[in-house]
Amino acid sequence: ARKRLKALRTVVAWRGRAEWDQVMVGLYCGDSRLQQEALDRVSAWKSRYGPKMPLAVDCTAELIRCKVLDSSGRLKSHELILSYGLALVRFVNLITERKQKMVSVPLRQLAREVDLPIWVVDLRHELTHGKLPRLALCRKGCDVVLDWLRKTYWSRQLGNNLCEESEDEDEEQEGMEANAELNNGGWE
């Protein structure tokens, strides 16, 4: 029985549920000071856990770091676009990479499979291959991705009820607005 118990144990970088919850709440609270403290804790986890760090935790931290930098007023618009852009491109690439098969599958199809709004993939495409989008669209993409991460990863990990159910109509409207911006060439 003891051998079976040892086999079921998983070593993680955080001390326990309380620390996990504290970091999750800190990341999503909106207070840049508390967010920075949560980011520092995630950095400590990363130093302990290295490449085993869950991609969702790493991506969340990168996106929150962008929001903290944005609220600090230290970066110019162009620098913020690049910062958000890198975090968004990395998120889409890492999240869809695990779904890639031996045959290349379009990112839009992979996004549908994980219930990620298609316009986020289109935003990633423009960031990678097109002209840089406006800062407002990068911010909106960051918010949508953070909400997606909260619902699909953070809230499910330890049974937390942090995410609030939003109405499908609101999400659909946001997606339509973002697609319109992408299609109308709303790029700087």
From TrEMBL:
Region Disordered, residue ranges:
164-188
Q: Which domain of life, per UniProt?
A: Eukaryota
List the signal peptide residues: none
InterPro entries in UniProt: Las1
Specify the species: Hemiprocne comata
Q: Which GO terms describe its cellular component?
A: Las1 complex; preribosome, large subunit precursor
Q: Which Pfam families match?
A: Las1 (PF04031)
The organism's lineage is:
Eukaryota, Metazoa, Chordata, Craniata, Vertebrata
Task: Tell me the protein's name.
Answer: LAS1L protein
